[in-house]
Amino acid sequence: MLGGHDLGAAGALLTREFFARPALDVAHRLLGCVLEHQTADGLVAVMLTEVEAYEGSADPASHAYRGRTARNAVMFGPPGHAYVYFTYGMHFCVNLVCLPEGTASAVLLRAGRVVEGAALAAARRAASRNGSVAGGAPRTVADRELARGPARLCQALGIDRALDGADVCDPASPLRVRSARSARGGPATPPISRGPRVGVNSGAQRPWRFWLTGDPTVSPYRPHVPRVRPKPVWAPDRSDGTMQQ
DNA sequence: CAGCTGATTTCCT
DNA sequence: GGAAATCAGCTGG
Known about the structure:
Elements lengths: L15 H4 L3 H8 L3 E6 L2 E13 L27 E6 L3 E7 L8 E11 L1 H13 L19 H8 L17 E4 L13 E4 L13 E4 L33
Antiparallel strand pairs: 1-2, 1-6, 2-5, 2-8, 3-4, 4-5, 7-8
Helix pairs in contact: 3-4
This protein binds a DNA duplex through β3, β4 and α4.
């Protein structure tokens, strides 16, 4: 939707105060809010449908559990900034920092519904697949799959480490968050479900994942499963008893 | 749909 | 050196 005039229901930017509270509090309030990223290619916006709260020093599943590092430094900074990290050698995930400077809680943005820039989002998602499709029909990405999962959400929005530390409360920032549209004939508070966080080991019993009940863009739940030994084999005996690696 | 596996690199013990 | 806040492709039921 292009903003012609009087989008009365268009959400205002979330304030610093909104984020200056515990992550558990911020998490469920973020559901229904809109994350948007403006780039030279255009604007992509998603309505958040799934989030997870991470406490800092008190939460063994948090990246900040063992203190400040180069990677997680932004989490210890002021609220309302994006903490973007790189994982599994290929994926980015984005969090929004909570609580005052000095503490390190944050909310992981796990999924959303694309509400603007769907064509650009789909192009980014498809491009990450194969770059160019030779001869065959390009695989299309279903609308509901565009931002279904934390790494997919970052792909659809074009988020990477360059946005680590971005202030999402600043109107001049390329990455911003708008409040949920107030009820205009709709329910003021949609039904929210909660359950254990995805893919975490320590602290898996804490039900700190929140999502919009029944929303098709919410990612499927996967419990944490440690991978088995990757290389049980070694080079045949060469009589010197040495092994590679 | 459930389940398994490879990809790929950064960070920390 | 190993695990990681993941995803896509493939197999089999």
